Amino acid sequence: MTSTTTPSKRTGGRSAAVIHSVRTAVEELVREKGSERVTVPMIAERAGVNPTSIYRRWGDLPTLINDIATYHLDPDRPLADHGSLRDDLTDWARGLVTHFRKPVNAALLRGGAGAAGDRQSDCLRNRRTESGMLLARHPESGLTEDEVMDVVVAPIIYRVIFQPWTLDDSTAETVVARLFR
């Protein structure tokens, strides 16, 4: 009797090490050069991998940049539950502001948004999902995901891209307060 086993997917090992090395290389290069000047060969050299490893995993530079831009804002991270929608949204918005006040994260967002082209970026899709989760806890609010995206997320993203010096400790409270006027 011959036994046949199906190879299992590796969730760690070399694949995880390559992903980590590439993400680290992208973040370092974006910090040093800006996202518009980074190339796949530069990333591969810095990460110590062959460029084909990057193309095989991500396909192209825009997809890689979009993936790295959304990596830090993990859509599976727990969202605070303070018992009030306003407090939950303020806490959530504060996390976005804190994240994007870091220059490398802002540069990755710019690169990821540009890389998205005519499709919605993972970053915005994930923020929409999170806003939906927060709203689902408080259906009595009558608010929609579009309202949260337009009134809370859009001003934050606008500031990250065009006026990063205006992101401060009061930004989250200010944009969320507009939603409850």
TrEMBL record:
Keyword Transcription part of the UniProt annotation: yes
InterPro entries recorded: Homeodomain-like_sf, HTH-type_TetR-like_transc_reg, HTH_TetR, Tet_transcr_reg_TetR-rel_C_sf, TetR_C
Pfam family, one: TetR_C_11
UniProt keyword terms in alphabetical order: DNA-binding, Transcription, Transcription regulation
GO MF, any single term: transcription cis-regulatory region binding
Domain HTH tetR-type: start-end pairs: 16-76
DNA-binding residues (ranges): 39-58
Keyword Oxidoreductase: no
Top-level taxonomic group: Bacteria
Protein name according to UniProt: TetR/AcrR family transcriptional regulator
Organism, scientific name: Leifsonia sp. NPDC080035
